[in-house]
Prior knowledge:
Strand content: 5-15%
Helix content: 55-70%
Number of helices: 21
Strand order of the largest sheet: 6-9-10-3-11-12
Structural class: alpha/beta
Number of strands: 12
CATH architecture of the largest domain: Up-down Bundle
Radius of gyration: 36 Å
Amino acid sequence: MNKKWKAWKQTAASLVPFIAPYKGSFFTALLMVALTNFCLAFSPQIEGMITTQLANDVMAHTAVDLQAVLRFMVILLGIYLTKTISQVVCIFLLTNSIQNAMHDLRNTLQNKIRRLPVRYFDTNQFGDVLSRLTNDIDTISNALQQTLTQVLSGVLSVSLALVMMMRINVMMAFVAVMIIPLMLLITRFIVKRSQKRFSAQQKALGKLNGTITEMYTGFNEILLYNKQEASIQQFRKINEELCGNAFLAQFMSSIISPIVSLVTYLTLGTIAVMGTMFAIQGIIQVGELQAFVRYIWQVNDPLSRISNLSAQIQSAFAAMGRVFEVLNEEEEIKESSRVTDTSAIRGSVTFDHVNFGYHEETIIHDFSVHVKPGQMVAIVGPTGAGKTTLINLLMRFYDVKSGCIAIDGVDIRDMKRDDLRSIFGMVLQDTWLFSGTIYDNIRYGRLDARKDEVIEAAKQANVHHFIRTLPDGYNSMLNEEANNISQGEKQLLTIARAMLKDPRILILDEATSSVDTRLEKMLQDAMHTVMQGRTSFVIAHRLSTIRSADLILVIRDGNIVEQGTHEELMKKKGFYEQLYQAQFADMH
């Protein structure tokens, strides 16, 4: 339990910097909580005075002292009004500070995610990352908004109620105090066993979100391969896991309230007997007994509420743990740049004895090659040979284990990643377009581009004619999935975007693999135009698209097994020739 408490303290401490900028509103709200509870603590005493006044007048067979009763009523009204106003002020200030803190936390988490290395996203489900950014922060927000004041209010309410009970009768207060350690023991016993379930619940929720994201991303493929039932079963399995953990977590935390209420009712029964005897003996007044009973409820109600909130509190700590787990992740290292003028880059690329592996297994073995400025380099090989890995290393999505990669003689590890990546243009097999106009999607390559430059890039990419045929031309909207245009047209738009950037080095990763023969010819013409005067790396399964390459690197099991032009490699009758002939045979 000490370890758990220590972990909770560390997690809560991590949240303090986000609350600190709004500490004025935050602590004023807490002062309003204190004022509210002082009002609540004094109200039973005033109510008891009214009861005592009426009881004494009746017992004395005298007229009711309406003036005294009215005076008490006015005081009571002032207390209730003060309590109400302080509650409203508290809600406003607390909501303002907490929501601003959550706004900052979301921004910090979003900025952190942008600084995480690619390997983090390779090892974590996108849906789980999304769940931390949305569901987990919402859980924290709700917990702070709903539970913080109730916990603080509960502590103050119990403390003040105990003081007031001691003023009425020490012996009765001692009996009533026994309710607190019993409640704490019950709560501790149950919380200790339910916390693991809440952590498992949050993890299962993240897993469920990740699975849903994957399923809906590949919904067409699921239908194509008739995997609906398998997907449903997979969803049900994870959903049942979430349901089981959520049931146990919620049930175990919810049984606290009825058990605490049982202890409270037993205490009330005891106090009723003692208080009646003391009232008969004249030790306490009738109104004091009434006030004492009210104070018992002022002890029970907060403890019961806090007990009921244990589920939300534990969920919040589990969510905070997941959020700060991301914030504590190791970021990409920021290096000082030795290259300040990227416009002077000529495009010479050297791989010098490069070795690399994602985990313990080495994928790239002692890889060396020199690419001259302006050359078109084709990278071919079977799936898993290391083609895309080379591009990941070149873009510094990963750093080499040994050896180095240099551009114009400068080790890319001595460049800032932003400077390095500004040199490159990239067109991937999986196109990425966002919801917006076609014009904005092309201009994404260079946001300061003029309209005529955007149109010229579209013309070079052979997509200008297609855009002109649309009703709204360049102002035509792409939907969220950009599925209101064909795959080939999307590919042409991404090439236009790369052309607009005017990069020194161009990377085409399977850029023509998803288009038909007609569009492939258009893409080849567009790529030929954009590659003029630029160093370019082309990864392609369609070997016919790279016959004109200045250099073809044939990779197998992380090693360059052959290199040369298409004609040179065909004459060698080696692995490249086998790949080419096999593809040619498949085409026939």
